Amino acid sequence: MRILHVNKLPRIVKNKRYLEKDLAVELSIKGAEIGISGEPEDEFTAEKIIEALDLGFPYRVAMLIKEEDFILQVINIKDHTRRRDLIRIKGRIIGTKGKTLKLLTDLSDNFFELDDKNNRVGIIGNPENIQTSHTAIISLIKGSKTGNVYTYLEKHRPEKLIDLGLKKPKETKKAKSNL
Question: Could you say which architecture CATH assigns to the domain 69-158?
Fold first, then answer.
């Protein structure tokens, strides 16, 4: 049994039934502590998903961790700066009206969330793409210009998968009517 301490308990309580059903675990909640019991691999997955929910990710994005192609990485802002003006650093990460976070998401094909209370940034995405996103966030924390960070992400943008023709294309109604 694993025990987690969470800050955003109502989010987990609201989704408790779905989490238990989708992850095949049993959750017990006592105060701000959540106990997870089940198979070891299910417990590990549930722990990561609950951590993502606690960071502020929506339920459907947090559930992507269940797939083998996605992982969660958490960056603690205080580990990468000595500056005391954390509000300014968080503002740089969010950007004007959330523009920077949205562009980071679009350029890297990852999902980002800023936990304002605990000074952490969460990233959910493919392991290949996570490293470039991690570098971009750290660059923003250390004071790099946002334009330079965008350029870095554009240069290291993940390549689209090439269709090898192994999957059958879906037939549309128009194609069926021509037959």
Answer: 2-Layer Sandwich (3.30)
Residue type, 94: I
CA neighbor of 130 nearest in space, from 100, 109, 148, 145:
109
In this prediction, residues 99-108 reach a mean pLDDT of 90
Q: What is the pLDDT of residues 53-93, one digit of tens each?
A: 989 899 899 899 988 789 999 999 988 888 778 888 888 89
- Look up the CATH number of domain 1-67: 3.30.1370.10
pTM here is: 0.79
Q: In what order do the strands lie in the sheet with 120-125?
A: 71-76, 120-125, 111-115
